[in-house]
Design brief:
about 170 residues; globular; Hypothetical Protein Pfu-838710-001
């Protein structure tokens, strides 16, 4: 799978919800998620445990500020606790990120309104595809939502929640 996404520090979740409702977005639910990141020699490997989403995800993405493409592989897990223990023994845990995520969908675009423990409020916009030839089209879709939500350049994040959490832990 491929996606083009942007992560933004964003306090105005209520505003975004109203816009999404007007555009006919489908509410996907509220998921309390724990993402365990493992030490990986390449890319990022995380196990997501939630009441809606449970999956092992491996992805590669550059730490650049703005809209960025990502290639990822997903394995839906029925027993995330057992998988977590095996991966901790084999690779070691890097960091854990806890969040409350509200999910909305319009066509192939997923909107995540996140409240991340110890980091704050964010929004992620992900345009999802299956063909790398779609990247320009997916990028255009994300840019349209950036304009619609009036996202400011200063709020756009370059790093993942795991990187932000590791940075915060280093400071403490």
């Amino acid at each position: 799978m491929i996606d083009v996404e942007i992560k933004v520090r964003y306090e105005h979740h209520t505003r975004v919800k109203k816009i999404l409702e007007k555009k006919g977005a489908i509410f996907g639910g509220v998921d309390n998620q724990i993402d365990i990141y493992f030490k990986s020699p390449t890319g990022r490997l995380k196990l997501r445990k939630g009441n809606i989403e449970n999956a092992l995800v491996f992805y590669s993405r550059d730490n650049i500020k703005g809209i960025k493409p990502s290639e990822y592989y997903l394995y839906k897990s029925q027993e995330p606790e057992m998988l977590e223990e095996i991966l901790k023994m084999a690779l070691g845990e890097l960091v854990t990120v806890e969040k409350k995520r509200e999910m909305y969908f319009i066509d192939n675009v997923k909107f995540n309104l996140d409240e991340v423990k110890d980091l704050g409020k964010f929004i992620e916009i992900e345009a999802i595809g299956t063909d790398s030839n779609e990247i320009d089209k997916l990028d255009h879709v994300v840019r349209e939502y950036v304009k619609l939500f009036d996202i400011q350049e200063k709020d756009i994040q370059s790093h993942s929640y795991s990187d932000l959490m590791l940075e915060k832990l280093k400071k403490n």
